[in-house]
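Might I ask for a little of your time on a matter of protein folding? Here, with my thanks, is the record as I have it:
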Amino acid sequence: QVQLVESGGGLVQAGGSLRLSCAASGRTFSNYAMGWFRQAPGKEREFVAAISWGGSSTYYADSVKGRFTISRDNAKNTVYLQMNSLKPEDTAVYYCAAPFKPFVVTKTYDYWGQGTQVTVSS
């Protein structure tokens, strides 16, 4: 079965950086787009970034554009989220996600990791 395991969260001061990782297993990683989402306390889960299966196309929420970078290493079955210039409003649990269908970038994600907490202090 598909498994997604995030790591790299933590506590950082405003203006700092963190890099999240998501290790995938259970199927051919390089055939599937990947996404990052986040959920802050009391708020709905929201899209952060997505990357196509080969890594040539990336997509970002307006709130993180220019500050966050999604990337992937298909040889390591891992997707990353580099977060720079962090703000207190970036505080949330961050989840990586994968779709059921291969070779599509979609708004529908079917597999989710357990999440990793990112806390940005002011």
In short: The chain has no helices and eleven strands. Residues 34 and 98 are 5 Å apart (CA to CA). The mean pLDDT is 97.
